[in-house]
Amino acid sequence: MKKTLICLAAAALMLGSCAPDRSQVLKVYNWSDYIDESVIPEFEEWYEAQTGEKVTVIYQTFDINETMLSKIEKGHEDYDAVSPSDYIIERMMHEGLLLPIDRDFGETPNYIDSTWSPYVRSCFDKVAVDGKTANDYAVGNMWGTTGILYNAKFVADEDALTWDIIKNPKYKGHILVKDSARDVYSQIILRIKEEDIAAGRVSADELMNYTSDEDIAAVEAYLAECRDLVAGWEADFGKDQIAQETAWLGLTWSGDAMWAIQESEGVDLRYALPREGFTVWFDGWVIPKYAKNVKAARYWINFMCRPDIAARNMEVSGYVTTNGSPEVLESVVDDSFDPIDLTYFFGAGYDSVRVNPILYPDKADIDRAVMEHDWGENTAKLIEMWSRVKGDNANITTYVIIAVALVAGIAAVVMTNANKKRRHASRRKRR
Known about the structure:
By secondary structure, this protein is of the alpha/beta class. The protein has helices at residues 2-15, 39-51, 65-73, 86-94, 111-115, 118-124, 134-137, 181-192, 194-199, 204-207, 213-224, 238-243, 254-263, 294-304, 307-317, 326-332, 343-346, 363-366, 379-391, 396-416, 420-423, and strands at 25-31, 56-62, 81-82, 98-99, 128-129, 132-133, 138-151, 175-178, 230-234, 249-253, 269-272, 278-288, 320-321, 339-340, 353-354, 369-371. 43% of the residues lie in helices and 17% in strands.
């Protein structure tokens, strides 16, 4: 309700004038549940204290990247600060839809460059267009991994260490796979080319650009072997089903895995990152080409990088911030976990830190991680392949699971709404 009131109040402010002063209005477009809403009025106060200027934030949310992109790409919507995913950032760079982010804030501290994780920075450097990288146009917001969530009562730990688990006949009828062409394709191409990677004939990073007809056919053939085993291709209900033991395992995102583990009681759920390699995903702040208040957008992004604000957003949303500051790390340290090496993310000296490895994988695991890229002109062919794969698997089990998920989802909303901010960690429909 609070979010609705914020949007309505801001809209009323704009409608109250025939020619609103956009220098006093900041339009923000972000993922659902990605923010502690109390930071919005705090930003307005902070912005005035830093610049001597007033600003009112219009805060809106989206659940699908392509919905957001269409509004900017086709509708020329004048959002000032937006948080798309990695491959959309790359696409927007190719299409000239982004403005570079100036980090000069005068006497105001530059939280962007002082807190940004070196790992995220290195990943953004891999996205390059016309001599510029994603670091010139984007600042990290949230991140996570893609792996296997499984119930240890039914699934062997060793089986969960390979993507082949989704075509393992031992688990027939109890397997769920994300309804996400991009995420599934990226993992399977790593599995198919495992020997080539080991022999040095191709790198895992290079594979993220392998979208030839031959490669697409190879992935489709692999997924065809899963058809009779997979119970359903799911966008958001999988975590509920695994938590309730309706399903035993799923190819999923780390955020969904965290949610399921937190919600399940007396169920031994675990999350594994397969040995063949896996992908990491990022959402970052950008300033679109049609922005009207670039100054306020820059300050908004800077404010979101302030350690205390980043930690609060992470705590309330359940997602993992790309902020690599000691203050953020301190907020997630938990002595119940074994120490792991997080030097890649937080820098030297953080080689034995006790945190949940689902939030921050150990360096030994992250060394197998790669970042996905935009499919460009081959996007349509890959989506067509994905439609063929799913179309042959719309079996009765799928529909039963969906029906059960809908009923369970309604009950879950009623029972968990009060604790939503603390426990919410769904990745939403990113692809």
